[in-house]
Amino acid sequence: MLRFILYACLSISSTLFGQTNYLIGGLPSINFNQSLPKGYALNFKTESRFAFASGSFGEFSQQQLRYILTDVSATATKQIGPTSSIGLGYLARIGREKIGHRLAQQYVHLNRIGAVRVAQRVVTDQTFVAEEATTLRARYRFTAEIPLNGEKIDAHEFYLKPNAEVLYVWQGNLHEPQFRLVPILGYVFTDNNRVEMGVDYRLSGFSTNLTVQTFWFVLSWYIKN
Amino acid sequence: MPIKRLNFLHLLTAILKPHRGSVSLLFLLLFGLPSLLVGQQKYEREFRIKTSEVPQAALTFVQNLDVGATPKWFREESLDGHTIEAKFKHQKQKYSIEFLPNGTLVDIEIETKFKNLPDSVQRTMLKELSARYAKTHFQKIQVQYTGLKSGAALAKPDDIQEKNFTQLRYEVVLKAKTAKGWQWLQVTFAQNGSFIEALEIVTRPTDNLEF
User: What is the CATH number of the domain that holds A90?
Assistant: First the structure.
């Protein structure tokens, strides 16, 4: 069944975008959040990337489990209004050969429309890797959290969390938009302990005429103290 | 009655117990330790129920009200017990009718807008809030009717009026800036807008929406 869904996704994508490369992988992550007085909070996150398969549509694909990298990040946030917060973060991207450093600045606006919690996030970030041009990105993400039982998400209940994100990336002479669509199914153990899983679909490579589509299987664990 | 739940850490430890290798240790460090930091949560849950599970008295009460729309029925559980709630929309207003498990009416709440409250109530509410909090941001306002008068007949939603009940209050969900920072509160006001009480709402984390 999973193979059929993947095949269907890849076939549709191939029809839509012509010559493209693809990557299918896994994206497990752990988020730990610590509330602090006066509206401050800290977020620690670790996220690894594993590739399951990669190649070009219509050609032989490489199917091998391989580790790619691990991101470790810390972000401090401060609530600046009843529905909004700002944050500053640092991320270390630990690859097999290089380590990258990323600084991020974010603004989040949270709202509620009926039973649905809605978040809008704007992020700018700067990534520094030795011997590479600095990468600058501007991102906007829209997320909805939809209870599947009742009007709010309680313990031992599932919920949907679709999100869509638009990014614009600058690196040296290269600049391009990127898109992400992430349908997520979540489950709440307790109010402060939940897991989410889904597919993080990413579309990039417009500036090089070789579109890259990435399908990350997401498994995230959120813990709050 | 609270339902006994599996402790996630216990489950995890049981799975890992036979494996004492370094991989298991790493796994436990990564996944087990953070869950130790998670405190006990109050057991409270709301979920949809079928009409067949609704107490007959509650069903009859709502049917007699002739709400037009089909109400959605919920069961709200807490450590104190449970209540049954009917929710529906009538003329673009949200209604919520709460019953005891035997079908006895608890209260009726109708969502409204601040501007629709009487001017004197608006002024008193704002005065009361500004005396207590630096800033406030309203999220939801409900008019709460309690104590149906004997002999009062509710044949339609428009009959839900002050004259048919012994008590009218306002229940406001708002975010207030306090010495601790911004907090979600449920503030109850009397019919004239005077402050009765404020309860802190334990909100669900937003980390999964922010990161």
Answer: 2.40.160.40
d(CA B169, CA B186): 13
Phi, psi for A86 (deg, rounded to 5): -120, 160
Distance in angstroms (rounded) separating the CA atoms of residues B102 and B84: 9
Tell me the pLDDT band of A96, cut-offs 50, 70 and 90: confident
Q: Give how far B158 is from chain A: nearest CA, Å.
A: 23
As given in the structure block, the two tokens for residue A179 are 């898109």
- ipTM of this predicted complex? 0.83
* Spatial CA neighbour of B203 closest among A191, A32, A225, A34: A191
- Locate tokens 């067949």: which residue? B52
- Structural domain of residue A185, as residue ranges? 2-224
Q: Report helix, strand and coil shares of chain B as percent, to nearest 5.
A: 30, 35, 30
Nearest to A121 among B175, B181, B210 (CB): B210
How many structural domains comprise chain A?
1
Chosen for mutation from A154, A188, A200 (greatest number of chain B CBs closer than 10 Å) is: A154
Q: Please check whether residue A158 is in contact with residue A149, taking contact to mean a CB–CB distance below 8 angstroms.
A: yes
pLDDT in tens, B29-51: 444 443 333 333 334 577 889 99
Selection from B141, B197, B211, B54 nearest residue A218 by Cα:
B211
Within 8 A of A145 by CB-CB distance, chain B residues are 208-209
